[in-house]
Write a structure and sequence with these properties.
The chain is of the alpha+beta class. It has helices at residues 117-120, 125-196; strands spanning 2-8, 12-19, 23-35, 40-41, 50-55, 61-67, 70-77, 81-89, 101-110.
Length: 200
Amino acid sequence: LALYFHIGEREEKCIIEDIPSDTLVVGNYKVQRWDIHIRDFLESAPGLGMFVTVSSPSGEVLLSKLYGPQAMFSFTSYHTGEHIICFQSNSTRIAVIAGSKLRIHLDIRVGEHFLDESVIQAKDKVNEINVRLEHLIEQIHHVTKEQDYEREREEKFRKTSEETNSNILWWAIAQTLILISVGIWQIKSLRDFFIAKKLV
């Protein structure tokens, strides 16, 4: 996931990521500050930090840390579901200048695995190949886990759809029976009325 978004200097912005359990998530971001004089975003925002907070689906805080204007953060999901990742600058301005805003470039990688670069750069090519293979195997495990998670979601959605269809069918049958009952009652009422008035 790679994107950018705008926030005010004192504003908090959150995104939601649906993540399988036991998955490493790595994020990189860069903050740019709006310059009112040149009417454009500066290349960076020196002196400005970002609070990064990550909450699990159950509300548990997995990460809460202050980083600089450009940084990498990571966390591991313990439960499957929607994780909330929030960003807020550490700006201490009491009155925010009109038009003062930040642009955050964000890149989130789900299922990343850290590689030991010192091993990769070693002269021994066998070790390098082994590390690459281990990395590939870990990626395969992650893809398998993602597929299992998607299958679970699909099964849950299918069950919900079947239950909804079943409820609609029973509701249609109930409506039909009610209409038939009301029709029979109206015919009987009219018949009794005509008999009472001696019209038939």
